Amino acid sequence: MQHELIARDKKVNWHPYTQMKTAKHIPIVRGEGAYIFDANGKRYIDAVSSWWVTLHGHAHPYIAQKVSEQLNTLEQVIFAGFTHPVAIELSERLLKLLPQNQQKVFYTDNGSTAVEVALKICVQYGYNKGGKKNKVLAFRNGYHGDTFGAMSVSGRGLWTASFGELLFDVLFIDVPTKYNLPDIKAIVEQHTDEIACFIYEPLVQGAGGMLMHEADDLSELMKFCRSKGILLIQDEIFVGFGRTGKLFAANHLSEQADVMCFSKGLTGGTMPLGVTTCTQEIYDAFYADDKTKALFHGHSFTGSPLACAAALASMDLLLQEETQSNIQRICRQHQGFSIILKKHPKIKDVRQQGTILALEWKIAAETSYFSDIHDALYPFFLERGVLMRPLGNIIYLVPPYCVSQKDLEYIYECILDALEIQE
Ligand SMILES: *Cc1c(COP(=O)(O)O)cnc(C)c1O
Fold it and tell me: CB-based contacts of 156: which residues, under 8 Å, 6+ apart?
């Protein structure tokens, strides 16, 4: 069956971020907890939470039950002119968990669109107030999604090269450190009159290579931007919902953003859903008798009741003591393994933020997504029943919180084995 599925897939499907000529796609027919199973019955530990979305494991019975109940009650309704209880409850409960200044929720259906909405909110906010600021400030090596706006504010590189001319102009800065903060502030200062907003991944730049920066330095930069009237968009699409060891990256920061974006783990990785939240002050700039002041954005599946039900169920699970103690246990296990890795001669750098662990392999060539080391390591781990997707020479772990202590130890062993064998 495995071979047949592969052949049928090859005939009709075009996969994301994939050179189809050389790629191979393993048919997965079932998931349970931290495991996925291929058509031959082979089991893989999902060490990357299926692209960083699965929080509580695959096919979680509680989420399945809640979505199923919703499916039999109200599967979908237009969210313009209508509302429904699950979206109301999700917004209420989500806002209670977020920094106090977050007061309104706008729904979309993935991370990229949550970012598009955040950018549009910030630019139209200025427009509605009669201003002319429309430049965006962003970090180099950032990643905010694949639609044109999200791509524009993401770090430029091989991924965006073919679209270069079509991307709008963005002011890029380095992530802050104690040393470069004065320089960064000087650059921002020079452009304050044009900058509408600053978008950033807090603490961890995921797709850029699991790059990490200090909460204090980011807080100081946020404070500076705020003092210059620049709106802050905090993209917690990857780091939200426990990944950093706290509920949100915001819980590590002493400053609060104006706009926040969520997706990925929002539904526990069950259904596509995006959320953009904002302050009352921003919302009020759109609130008027004048119809043209409204936010002009929406999607067919805005506020999908099924996705909202999944998000509520995932939130129930996330807040359980068992999940919270699992998160802390993963953090401790990662810390222990980091100490071993730091002494390893083949390791260039080890980085950890909560449940996210990244290690950088020493190689001659510059770190790149297209590095050959990926091509060697990816099958090495798969063969051993572990799904990891190295970003070039960077290996990272983003496990679902239900991963067992033993399975995590097994993954560490596989990494150490790879270090022995791999040149
Ligand atoms: C994945 C990601 C996005 C884009 O989300 P999609 O749902 O894949 O469109 C945006 N920002 C960050 C930080 C991400 O990790």
Answer: 164, 167, 172
Q: What is the per-residue pLDDT for 361?
A: 87
Q: Are 331 and 407 in contact (CB under 8 A)?
A: no
DSSP 8-class letter at 342: H
Determine the pLDDT at residue 375: 82
Residue 143 annotated among the catalytic residues of the structure: yes
- Residue 95's Cβ-count burial label (10 Å; 0-12, 13-18, 19+) is middle
pLDDT digits (tens, 9 = 90+) for 203-213: 999 999 999 99
CB 194 within 8 A of CB 133: yes
Please tell me if the CB atom of residue 269 comes closer than 6 angstroms to any atom of ligand 1. Answer: no
Angle at 25 between CA 23 and CA 28, to 5 degrees: 170
Give burial (CB, 10 Å; 0-12/13-18/19+) of 296.
exposed
Cα dihedral sign, 326-33-405-241: negative
Q: Give start and end residues of each alpha helix (H) in 228-371.
A: 280-284, 305-319, 321-342
Q: Which helix or strand (DSSP H or E) is residue 232 part of?
A: strand 231-235
Half-sphere exposure of 238 (CA within 13 A, CB side): 27
pLDDT at 366 over 70: no
C-alpha 304: how far from its chain's center?
A: 20
Binding residues for pyridoxal 5'-phosphate: 111-112, 235, 299-300
Distance CA 413, CA 407 (A): 10
- CB-based contact 380:421 (threshold 8 Å): yes
- The residue whose C-alpha atom lies closest to atom 5 belonging to ligand 1 is 111
Q: Count Cβ neighbours within 10 Å for each residue of 74-94 and write b for 16 or more, e otherwise.
A: eeeeebeeeebebbeebbeeb
User: Residue 112: CB within 6 Å of ligand 1?
Assistant: yes
Question: Is there a catalytic annotation at residue 127?
Answer: no
Tell me how far the alpha carbon of residue 376 lies from the centroid of ligand 1, in angstroms: 26
109 lines ligand 1 (CB under 6 A): no
Report how far ligand 1's centroid is from the alpha carbon of 143 (Å): 7
Q: What is the β-pairing status of strands 394-397 and 356-361? A: antiparallel
Encoded tokens for 230 = 């620049």
Distance from C-alpha of 10 to C-alpha of 40, rounded to nearest angstrom:
18
Q: With cut-offs at 50, 70 and 90, classify the pLDDT of residue 362.
A: confident
